[in-house]
Design a protein that fits this description.
With 221 residues, the protein is an alpha/beta fold. The protein is built from 7 helices and 10 strands. 38% of the residues are buried. It is globular, with a radius of gyration of 17 Å. Strand 1 and strand 2 form a beta hairpin. It has a single domain, classed as Rossmann fold.
Length: 221
């Protein structure tokens, strides 16, 4: 099981009213579309799944590991080894080339490095090719690339080393409809090749058709 949660809640402080989340049961290799209006808790739930925040109550297991029971350092190591994250603003390192950005997870995690086959540099090139990043841009700084190209570099970085789970936080918000749909198709096709689970967060219901599982969060009161 990629994700298993039950009666999960989160609060920003002791005095604030907790956000309560619906239960999730996502099998390994499955792809989940997580939708909700602004303020519904999408990014908060993603932070819980990534181990960046700890729930106030409830049970949360990622790949059969009990995240809330881990220390902060253990969650950081688990995230580096097992999770790929695509941020809304991509969070690429501006002074690095596209290929060096893709290789970052392999430098932070021995497990990801060992799973990047036949070797990290070769998998980075294969991912950039599969995601339609032209070879003449691979060794250019990412600041010289278009938004769509940067987005695909961020996806390659998340996929390298075959993490068990990818968390994507509205990464298509800056794209037009055609490029948005094409990016999702490329991302999910590469995830299927690697048997990687995906949780894709968006407010745009039109994207739901790309995913086999759906979850909608309610507006916070």
């Amino acid at each position: 099981m990629a994700i298993s949660s039950e009666a999960l809640s989160y609060a920003w402080s002791e005095r604030s009213t907790p956000i309560k989340f619906p239960d999730i049961q996502l099998t390994s290799g499955a792809h989940l579309f997580l939708r909700g209006a602004s303020g519904s808790g999408k990014s908060t739930l993603l932070s819980l799944l990534a181990g960046l925040a700890v729930p106030r109550s409830g049970r949360l297991r990622i790949m059969e590991h009990d995240l809330p029971e881990m220390s902060g350092g253990q969650r950081d190591r688990f995230r580096a080894d097992h999770l790929g994250v695509i941020f809304q603003q991509f969070n690429l390192v501006p002074y690095l080339s596209a290929i060096d950005n893709v290789l970052l997870p392999c430098r932070l995690s021995a497990r990801r490095r060992q799973h990047a086959l036949p070797r990290p540099s070769a998998e980075a090139e294969a991912l950039l090719t599969a995601l339609d990043v032209p070879p003449n841009l691979w060794y250019q700084k990412v600041t010289a690339m278009s938004v769509g190209q940067q987005q695909r570099v961020a996806a390659a970085r998340a996929l390298i080393g075959s993490p068990a789970l990818i968390l994507a936080d509205e990464p298509t918000s800056a794209l037009d409809a055609d490029n948005r749909d094409r990016f999702i198709d490329l991302l999910l096709s590469q995830a299927r090749v690697r048997q990687t689970s995906v949780v894709f967060v968006s407010h745009d219901q039109a994207l739901a058709r790309h995913f086999g599982h759906h979850l909608t969060l309610g507006v916070l009161q």
